[in-house]
Amino acid sequence: MSSDFESYEQDFAVLTAEITGRIGKVPKLVGDEKKQMIANVEKQLEEARELLEQMELEVREIPPQSRGMYSSRMRSYKQEMGKLEADFKRSRIAYSDEVRNELLGDDGNSSENQRAHLLDNTERLERSSRRLEAGYQIAVETEQIGQEMLENLSHDREKIQRARERV
């Protein structure tokens, strides 16, 4: 079961990376290309939501003693999904501002360009922070698994030594 979960995890990671890249491209595109990119991102966000649902179903199937680790991963994935949706919403707002400016004949000034650059930089920082948080969580989970394995090996060693002494 956990192999299915891990497969979904990999698909989710690839999909969120693609979404992140496309969200970053939206403000730089114009016209039909921008509309098409927005439609693609919306489609991919829906796929990511479906993957999260599948992952939740897999977590429910996992034995209770192992479920905690997977539950914490799910929380971080849900947070990442929420941040992706917020980033996409911001890029769409920037898109609608551009459309409004085009319709009104406003060419935009340097302060709007600076604002757009600041938003882009903020988004990049947030994505980097999310990646660091996810990496930290994986490291903590790996450490916990390692400790459990060492404890199990220690108990097994004691059993083997007692069996040798009896023989």
UniProtKB/TrEMBL annotation:
Q: What is its main location?
A: membrane
A GO biological process of this protein is: vesicle fusion with Golgi apparatus
Tree of life domain: Eukaryota
List GO terms (cellular component aspect): cytosol; endoplasmic reticulum membrane; ER to Golgi transport vesicle membrane; Golgi membrane; late endosome membrane; SNARE complex
**GO terms for MF:** SNAP receptor activity; SNARE binding
Membrane topology of the entry: Single-pass type IV membrane protein; Single-pass membrane protein
This protein's UniProt keywords: Coiled coil, Golgi apparatus, Membrane, Protein transport, Transmembrane, Transmembrane helix, Transport
UniProt-annotated location(s): Endomembrane system; Golgi apparatus membrane
| Domain (Vesicle transport v-SNARE N-terminal): residue spans on this chain | 1-91
Coiled coil spans: 31-61
| Gene3D superfamilies (alphabetical) | 1.20.5.110, t-snare proteins
What is the annotated quaternary arrangement, including any partners? Interacts with distinct SNARE complexes that contain either STX5 or STX6. Interacts with NAPA and, to a lesser extent, with NAPG. Identified in a complex containing STX6, STX12, VAMP4 and VTI1A.
Q: Which family does it belong to?
A: Belongs to the VTI1 family.
* Protein name, entry field: Vesicle transport through interaction with t-SNAREs homolog 1A
